[in-house]
Amino acid sequence: MLSSSDWRERADGLQQEMGSPHSSTDPTPPPEASQRDLRHVVPRSLDEVAEEVISSFDDLARQDPEAVERIQVQGSDSTGRVTMTLSPGSLVACAVDPGWAAKQSSVGLNRAFDEALHDARSALARAVEANKTGGENRQLDTLLDEALAILSDPRRFTGF
């Protein structure tokens, strides 16, 4: 039964397809990998970089992942009659002066809500950014660049 089937030809065809990185019948080009610019990176020794990477990961593990979720900010419209309280995940509260709201049209109310929401979202973005440890993120980027420069250094393979 196996001798009469074309299994060997199909297996060879499959092997050829898997061996070629991109099929010539497929018109879409393969995605290009983004490259980091390592021209100006002067890496330290591998031991120093590895030690700093481990230390940085220890620092990240000690950070409180819920600190950002506890942030709450307020924003209000230009009259101060509408106030919104936001957290990164939700609208926490909305306070409106009832006497003022009773005299407003739907357009006026929507405009005040929009101003308060815009103000609160801006404040939230500033608070979240201030809570981030930008220095540590830059440090990790620098360490990644150093590690990539070490790995792409041809002297690593030749011993020169």
Q: How many beta strands in the DSSP annotation? A: 3
Major β-sheet annotation: 3 strands, antiparallel
Give the spatial strand order of the biggest sheet: 1-2-3
| Uncertain ranges | none
Proportion of residues in extended strands: 5-15%
**Gyration radius over CA:** 29 Å
Order of helices and strands: HHEEEHHHH
The assigned structural class equals: mainly alpha
Shape: elongated
Q: Cα distance, first to last residue?
A: 59 Å
Query: What is the tally of helical segments?
Result: 6
How helix-rich are the residues, as a percent range?
40-55%
> What is the mean predicted local confidence, pLDDT?
78
Write structural notes for this entry.
The structure is a single chain. The protein is mostly helical and 160 residues long. Helices cover 52% and strands 11% of the residues. Helix 2 runs antiparallel to helix 5 (134-152). The N and C termini lie far apart (59 Å).
